[in-house]
Amino acid sequence: MSFHDEDYTPQYYDLDTAPGDQDMEYERQVDGKENRVRRNQGAFLSDDSTNVIHRRKDMQLATNLNDRRAYVQRKCSSDEKRRKISHESCNSVASTANALPVTNTFSEAVNSITGENSLSLVKLGKLVRQFEMNLENKELLATKMKEVNAINLQQVKSMQNAIDSMRPSSDSVVRTLAGIIKEQNNIIAGLSLTDLPESLVTFLINFVLDGVGLYAEELLMSASECARQSNRFWLGLGNDDEARTKMFDRLSEARMKLCGLARVAIGRALGDLRAYHFDAEKEMLSPPSKKRFCPATTQDSLAHEHTNEPEHEQDEDIESLKSI
Predict the structure, then answer these.
(1) d(CA 51, CA 150)
(2) Which of 34, 25, 32, 26 is nearest to 3 (CA)?
């Protein structure tokens, strides 16, 4: 009986199994078929020769399996390197595109980012981090932001996707500290104005502005925007657009200066208040050892120093407010 005369049923292999398992299964089937053919033909092999053949086949299978594993490892390593290089190149390009211009002044940097077609929030964040945000820089930035026509929405979407992809920390200590910071966020502490919640500072400043008649929301716009609306506030500033524009600029400048003076006053008031201490023996608040309040003349001089405006011009602004 020949090899081809024996009935043979084709075997199908699972491609999801490991390559080595497929090779071993195939070799077992071939060995079994060859042995059956030899037995039918009367050609029997001795035990020693059979063992030698099996050892050679096992060594060949092991060599093939190791070669395949080494190939898979090299391929995975090369793919990982390509992904890493691509990711680093993308980050490098994005960092270069969002880099601030080389400048030493805050005004030049603000003009460069606000003069683009769409405002980049990444550049704005780098600007705030790089320069000191004092009162003058804050007012300049607020003025320039009014001239912004559009915001880069695609960049905002990318930033939000990056934030959403960040996994929350699983560290219980970090979660506990985050909860404490969140609870203590609105508590007033410290000795300086920066420790006050900004919402409270804004409320106090708006209260002062409302008291002197400078709280109108129209003063946050530009003169051209207010003129296009032609609302009651704009029409009450004068008889014609030229007079209204002049009065609008004066009121807007007065509002800006008053905001700065209000912040300074709030900071000094907090300093004077915290100069008191609690006397445990008398069970009452004791005043500071040295009087911290400035004389009236000193306060007036400081006010004129911050506003850089003569006293008679301030009186004219107040009279103008009364006439509105």
Answers:
(1) 81
(2) 34
> pLDDT, tens digit, for every residue of 256-265?
888 888 888 8
Region of residue 283 (phi > 0: left; psi between -120 and 50: alpha; otherwise: beta): left
Instruction: Please give the average per-residue pLDDT across 58-75, as a whole number.
Output: 66
| Angle, alpha carbons 143-115-141 (nearest 5°) | 25
- List own/partner pairs for 24-32 with CB under 8 A and 24 or more apart: 24/61, 27/57, 27/61, 31/57
Which pTM value belongs to this model?
A: 0.31
User: What stretches of the chain adopt beta strand conformation (E)?
Assistant: 277-279, 284-286
Domain boundaries, the chain: 19-97, 100-164, 187-324
Instruction: Measure Cα distances from 233 to 74, 207, 241, 247 in Å.
Output: 74, 19, 12, 11
Cα–Cα distance, 123 to 306 (Å, whole number): 31
